[in-house]
From TrEMBL:
MF GO annotations: magnesium ion binding; phosphopentomutase activity
Organism: Arenibacter troitsensis
Keyword vocabulary terms for this entry: Isomerase, Magnesium, Metal-binding, Phosphoprotein
Pfam families given in the database record: PGM_PMM_I, PGM_PMM_II, PGM_PMM_III
Name recorded for this polypeptide: Phosphoglucomutase
CDD domains assigned to the protein according to its UniProt record, in alphabetical order: PGM2
Highest rank taxon of the organism: Bacteria
One Gene Ontology biological process: purine ribonucleoside salvage
Sequence ranges assigned to domain Alpha-D-phosphohexomutase alpha/beta/alpha in this UniProt record: 44-182, 204-305, 317-435
Keyword Transferase attributed: no
Similarity comment text for this entry: Belongs to the phosphohexose mutase family.
């Protein structure tokens, strides 16, 4: 506790503003546990950048923690591009303080001689990724905490290709940041280097989204869509993209259309949570809509609901949406006679059905660590292989490579194209999904997230991962574990033969078990939230669409047995 107290007292010097000093002094005087949580560590870059609760302290998002990160990034950019005028672009979402924090970040960059393009109002994360390349910038920043609760904010860093930072840049930047003290931050802006941007970039991004996400689907006039931005940024662009692509029957949930960092109508602004789409689904039932789309605050994730076999709205999980979007893109390429070295992409905790799909279409499926930065890195590393599309289980998808992060804007349009086309052909999005199961295997997934907050929670998560490694699972639902993949050591072990083979993926704190019957279980701590996540995937054959409900119930029962057996959930 002495070290924590000393760290806190460092924030009482004259360098820090009066509001910050008063906040820290009050905590020193009255709230030991809160003080501990704010100063027991420094915020770090995770799978999605830097994300945390807002407030004063080293373990919080504030002008000083973001200022220090920006100063370190400025130093690195000026070292790497010392003979160039360095340029960055900054966007921000609807969260509390996003606009003022974006302005602070812009000021620090400009104080270091860096040209800044700052969006004049809130914009989506995919537009920021697009803008990096469109404006020929060396880096980009978006102020967002994605789908986290209202008290959070965050800071994502993008590199010259429009993808988030990866090795070796991320390690070098973090090292530079860690070498600094807060007093090294240059806050005095050079306003001549800060340029506000908006409509020109908006127009270019909208045109690119329509071009990449539209496939001249039939039946657009007869396809009804309900859309909700969940109080986030997508309201600035998705309605316009759908309109330009020819969709006229779009109902926007007005109660959730106004950007609001309190997210007043939802428990969580996360389309992964069924409750978040409840208002839109209710409207869809009222008006007889075919599809519901909801996006998270920075518009990189999307939730999709479609009518099931009973005609009721059913929310698809991220794996189902990813499979349908990928298959549709593959079908379009096949129609054009395009075959060759293309690849699709997914992540190690997403559905193995992506591999089955790739084999069926004669393309490669590359698998990355969790986080779209790794898919963006693949596009750069395998420049001779065209990237078709890809996604992850957590409701993210990327269409082509014009945006180098998950993109709910273009993916929303793509989902509508699939649905409209299916309906025009006498089928539906859901029926086409079942046909996909018949052709490539019926895969079903389940995610369990356990929240463990604070210093004690971090220790508990750490111990849980150690326990799974030291006491490996021997079987799952009666099927013997045959493969254990340990991404901390980048090794895959066949527990039957004892053979160990290297995994050609960067090391990460992930453990995966695979059984004889193809059941897969993965465990990993979240890189951006105080959670440990368990991913389950099971599969079987589906002989025909008529057996869907029976086999689906059997898979559900299997998942429940597994959760009970492992005492998870």
């Amino acid at each position: 506790m002495e070290a924590i107290l000393e760290n806190a007292k460092n924030w009482l010097t004259d360098f820090f503003d009066d509001k910050t000093k008063n906040e820290i002094q009050k905590l020193i005087d009255t709230n030991t546990e809160e003080l501990k949580d704010r100063f027991y560590k420094n915020l770090e870059f995770g799978t999605g950048g830097m994300r945390g609760i807002m407030g004063a302290g080293t373990n919080r998002i504030n002008k000083y923690t973001l200022g220090k990160s920006t100063q370190g990034l400025s130093n690195y950019l000026n070292q790497v591009y010392k003979d160039e005028q360095v340029k960055v672009v900054i966007a921000y979402d609807c969260r509390h303080n996003s606009d003022t924090l974006a302005r602070t970040v812009a000021q620090v960059f400009s104080a270091n001689g860096i040209k800044v393009f700052l969006f004049s109002e809130l914009r989506t994360t995919p537009e920021l990724s697009f803008a990096v390349k469109y404006l020929n910038c060396h880096a980009g920043i978006v102020l967002t905490a994605s789908h986290n609760p209202p008290e959070y904010n965050g800071y994502k860093v993008y590199w010259t290709d429009g993808g988030q930072i990866v090795p070796p840049q991320d390690v070098a930047i973090v090292s530079e940041i860690n070498s600094l003290s807060f007093e090294d931050i240059k806050f005095k802006a050079d306003e001549s280097l800060i340029e506000l941007i908006d409509k020109k970039v908006d127009e270019a991004f909208i045109e690119a989204s329509v071009e990449n996400g539209s496939f001249n689907a039939k039946g657009k006039d007869d396809f009804k869509i309900v859309f909700t931005s969940l109080h986030g940024t997508s309201i600035t662009v998705i309605p316009e993209v759908l309109k330009r692509a020819g969709y006229k029957n779009v109902t926007v949930i007005e109660e959730q259309a106004k950007p609001d960092g309190n997210f007043p109508t939802v428990v969580s602004p996360n389309p992964e949570e069924p409750e978040a789409l409840s208002m839109a689904i209710k409207k869809a039932e009222e008006i007889g809509a075919d599809m519901v789309i909801g996006t998270d605050p920075d518009s990189d994730r999307l939730g999709v609901a479609v009518r099931n076999l009973e005609g009721e709205m059913e929310i698809l999980n991220g794996n189902q949406a990813m499979i349908m979007m990928t298959k549709f893109l593959l079908d379009q390429r096949k129609k054009k006679g395009i075959t060759g070295k293309e690849f699709i992409a997914s992540t190690i905790v997403s559905t193995p059905m992506m591999d089955s799909l790739a084999k069926g279409y004669g393309v490669e499926c590359k698998t990355a660590l969790t986080g779209f930065k790794w898919i963006a890195k693949m596009i750069k590393d395998f420049a001779d292989q065209p990237f078709i599309g890809g996604g992850e289980e957590s409701f993210g998808f990327m269409v082509g490579d014009f945006v180098r992060d998950k993109d709910a804007v273009t993916s929303t349009l793509l989902a509508c194209e699939i649905g409209a086309n299916a309906k025009a052909n006498g089928s539906s999005f859901f029926k086409d999904l079942i046909d996909c199961y018949v052709d490539y295997g019926f895969f079903k997934e389940k995610l369990i997230s356990l929240t463990k907050k604070g210093m004690s929670g971090a220790e508990e998560i750490k111990q849980m991962m150690i326990d799974f490694k030291d006491n490996p699972v021997k079987s799952i639902d009666g099927s013997k574990v045959v493969i254990v993949e340990d991404y901390n050591t980048a090794t895959s072990k066949n527990v039957i033969t004892g053979k160990v083979t290297p995994i050609d993926i960067p090391k990460s704190n992930v453990l995966i078990y695979i059984t004889e019957d193809g059941t897969k279980m993965a465990a990993r701590p979240s890189g951006t939230e105080p959670k440990i996540k368990f991913y389950f995937s099971i599969n079987t054959k589906l002989k025909n669409a008529a057996d869907y409900k029976k086999v689906d119930a059997e898979l559900d029962a299997k998942i429940e047995r597994i959760l009970k057996e492992l005492n998870i959930g």
